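Hey, I was hoping to borrow your eyes for a little while. For a while now I've been wondering how a particular protein folds. The fold is given in discrete form, as structure tokens running alongside the sequence. Could you read through the record and tell me how the tokens relate to the sequence? Take your time with it, there's no hurry, and the full record follows here:
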Amino acid sequence: MKDKQYKFISPMMMLLLLGFAYSCQVTPSSDQKERDAVEATINAYFEGMIERDLQKLQAAFHPDARLMGYRGKELTITSFSDWAAGTASGQPRDPELYDNGLLEVEIKGYTALAKTELYWPGIYYYDFLTLIKIEDQWKIVHKTWYEEPLD
């Protein structure tokens, strides 16, 4: 029976391996900073809808953004300016009746995709938001939604 030989890693090699592993880690501070900035944009979108605040909506969306989805069986394509004008008109909504949530964010360079879920009185929305970072600000450039009546 052969004797098993065990080789140990020298302390110097261990330090080199640990240093390499540490250097390969993604810096959470920069990634987290971008995610926080995307979330701030999406929160401005949520707050702008509930508060009917045109300035918050303008802070969240690029002026050339488009919004697309079905209202019943009809495909609706709306410019940001038309949508924002309608959304911002009227009295603020009661935030207790609305539940808006960010489900997922994926960021690749200067682009991001966010998935949101909105429970509004009598209706459920699922939004896909495409964002682009322009001059150090994240802006929603496209919103595609799915809606479903709630029973």
